Amino acid sequence: MVTRELLFIAALLFLSRGSGGADGAAETPAVGVMGRRSLQPPAASRSFSRRKRDEETPSYLKWVTFEGKLPDDAVSNWNNYAKRMEYVCSTSVLGCDTGAYVPDRGPFCFFPYGEQEESTRNFKVLVNVGNFEALDWVDDSFGSVPENAVAGCPFFDTFVGRNRYGLGKISKEQRAAFVVVDGEEVWYKWYQVLVVKKGLADVTISHVRYNMSRAVEGREDVTLMKTTVRNEGCQRVWKAVTLEEVTETEHNWGIDRRVFATVHGVLQAALLTFSGTGWDVTNVTNIPWVGGASTSKYVVHIRVVEEELQPWTTCTVALEGRRLDIRVPFTAQLTRDFGDGQPHRVAMTGWARSQVVVGVRAGIKECRPIDDVPPCWV
Ligand SMILES: *[C@@H]1O[C@H](CO)[C@@H](O)[C@H](O)[C@H]1NC(C)=O
Ligand SMILES: *[C@@H]1O[C@H](CO)[C@@H](O)[C@H](O)[C@H]1NC(C)=O
Questions:
Q1: Atom 4 in ligand 1: residue holding the nearest Cα
Q2: C-alpha angle 54/200/267, rounded to 5°?
Q3: What residue range is the signal peptide (predicted)?
Q4: Contact 274, 357 (CB under 8 A)
Q5: Most buried in the list 28, 99, 259, 283, measured by CB within 10 Å?
Q6: Could you tell me the pTM of the whole model?
Q7: What is the mean pLDDT of each run of 10 residues along the chain (378 residues)?
Q8: Residue 270 C-alpha to ligand 2 middle, in angstroms?
Q9: In this structure, which residue's CA is closest to atom 11 in ligand 1?
Q10: What is the C-alpha to C-alpha distance for residues 309 and 367, in angstroms, rounded to an integer?
Q11: 349 in contact with ligand 1, CB cutoff 6 A
């Protein structure tokens, strides 16, 4: 422990040496080379940008404080040199550095610093919630980064980079990428930068597959409307009553991950409809999606009841039916199309719910004498 702290202090004292240095003479590095020795940094590595990068970072891509285990949807990189999966981490213990979290190597973020590999328990992991963001590794060189490169921390010009030796950091000031190779920090003039695609994208939710084996069905008898019919005469009479009511056949879709609540687009899905004996799926139709989707249809029910009423009698007539509903989980594919021929596809899960009223019929419910009408024979 003491040794490690001493090492850190040493690294801080000799600021002009490693990549983490914040001092030193300006010196244009040789072109097209890499080296075991770090570059002399041409300027202070700390730069307070005019804009906060936090504000530029889309909400689905975020740095999450490491709390003992790999968070869901952590951004990974297959390191083919070390033959292991690495996850992008960043730390501000020595300014701003990015590197690799490797679960098998313990709860540390390993990063290149001061000519060697450093590590810390105090770090963040890059998470792409629901894999919603379209990420890409883009070639660049000499400390440049493309627009929308992923920065390691707010206020620093340190970006997430990699090369064939694994994850590292790109320093704009030092005009190079730094990667740990066999325990040593090495700088490179050519590298790849992690970039998040931004801009308007058309969202389509398609390939909806309902899992009918997990369907949950419900049914309930309902009274749609009631009315009364009276015979105030002294004779039996035939009366015809027309009952009319509107019901709604409803279809709703929702998504399991609440984080997608702000997504707008189009859902391409079949409707679940009741065929008379069971639930069926229709052809696929397009439905607007605004965090969820819903469509409904009004159905008008008209029934005529004819009944012979006794004298001085009032009867209740009701329109009744059965409300059926079904709830089914589904899997689907969410596609974000930026119009650049490289749509970004994400698997998603949700549920669909349909509700319909069937078996609508009208009938006499109950009859009773009209008290306040004197009997005809009085
Ligand atoms: C449907 O759900 C069941 C039960 O959870 C599961 O075993 C099955 O693999 C699912 N089928 C599909 C096609 O997803
Ligand atoms: C469903 O699609 C098929 C083939 O495209 C078509 O023949 C059929 O008429 C459609 N059914 C309905 C109810 O639209």
A1: 214
A2: 115
A3: 1-21
A4: no
A5: 99
A6: 0.74
A7: 39 42 38 44 40 48 95 96 97 96 97 96 96 94 95 94 97 95 95 93 95 96 94 90 94 87 91 92 94 94 92 93 97 93 93 96 91 67
A8: 11
A9: 211
A10: 9
A11: no
The kind and range of the H/E element at 11 are helix 2-13
Query: Which ligand is the nearest neighbour of the Cα of 285?
Result: 2
192: nearest Cα among 150, 129, 134:
150
- Phi/psi for 241 (5° steps) reads -120, 135
| Distance in angstroms (rounded) separating the CA atoms of residues 119 and 112 | 9
Q: Could you tell me the two tokens for 76?
A: 């990974």
Which atom of ligand 1 lies at the shortest distance from residue 214's CA? Answer: 2
Could you tell me if the CB of 365 is within 6 A of ligand 1? Answer: no
Tokens of 344: 């970004």
Written in H, E and C, the secondary structure of 144-209 is CCCCCECECCCCECEEEEEECCEEEEEECCCCEEEEEECCEEEEECEEEEEEECCCCCEEEEEEEE
- The tokens for 169 are 């950091």
